[in-house]
Amino acid sequence: MASSLRIEKVDRPVLAQHDSTILDLVFVMDCTGSMGPYIDSAKNNIHAIIKEIVANETSNIRLALIAYRDHPPQDTSFVTRVHDFTTQANEMKSSLDSYQANGGGDTPEAVADALHDVLHLSWRSDATKICVLISDAPPHGLHQENDSFPNGCPAGHDPARLVRDMAEQHITLYVVGVEPPIVLYRDFFMALAYITGGQYVPMINAKLLAKVIIGGVREEISLDRLMQDALPDIDREMQQAKEDGLDDKIKAQRLNEIFSAKNLRSKRMKNSHGALSLAATDGYAKCPDMAEMRIQFRKQLETIPNTFATSTLTILASDINYDLMEDVDVSEDQAARLVQKWQQRNRKTYY
Fold this sequence. Notes:
Blueprint (H helix, E strand, L loop, with lengths): L21 E9 L5 H21 L3 E9 L11 E7 L2 H9 L13 H8 L9 E8 L23 H10 L2 E8 L7 H11 L3 E4 L5 H21 L1 H14 L3 H14 L4 E4 L8 H6 L6 H14 L4 H12 L4 E5 L3 H14 L1 H4 L1
Parallel strand pairs: 1-2, 1-4, 4-5, 5-6
Antiparallel strand pairs: 2-3, 7-8
Keywords: Secreted, Signal
Subcellular location: Secreted
Organism: Adineta steineri
């Protein structure tokens, strides 16, 4: 029941009414005891990150920081601390410098509380909005082993609901997953990012953090521009796909037809080991809340072989690459993420 696309092929179009020179970027950092190298990497590279993004993509950038640890009694220093958006790189550097890796208690951390704080930052309505979560542990309530709050965040925050609220507010989540500790929860975090149209990036070398942030931001800005350029066609095709009862995979193929017909291309950071998994897209991402995600995790845990973490780390260490490719065709994963962006941003009227 496919509908034919009615698109005039043109040369690269003039950008739509969207100011892609405006960027709001927040770092959400686990500041517990195991995260020292990543906190230090962010401190040492924040000026270089800003300089490269400004030089290549945007002249108007603001940065924010949300640091998190855990709830008492697991950690008594703080649950979250929020440093709202600033245009001053030195202020951001000072905020980062105030943190050392310390504490944490049980395995899970206050991920949900940090995501809740993301929603309450002073985002600009016309900005490209990106949240980079850097973590090596799950939120409370997913894997109940060694979890002092097995039923979830004691403040009642639900990550599955929060990321949908983020997506509705046009905030794209990138998860930098510190491996191997986070391998067991990779598909869960991948789903959180996917719901917003973002991506999961596996990380085993803290020295590469700046490269990932720069590459991810530049890719996301290019996708934001692309989406704006083709928005009337995307709106029409997504509505037709709904009427035809098509699944998300076919919707993504339809969007790629639009991009090809309009000669729209993108930037793409190499992230082969963060490629979308079926467990993330067809499992966790379909769960409306953490209670359902916990059930999904239990099912997955029963099927994961004991060698999973070790074999994955070996593969990553041998050929990991985060180079940014410029002026390339939109990939299947990118088109799938754009479907999620559109659906979540329009969820009140689309579903």
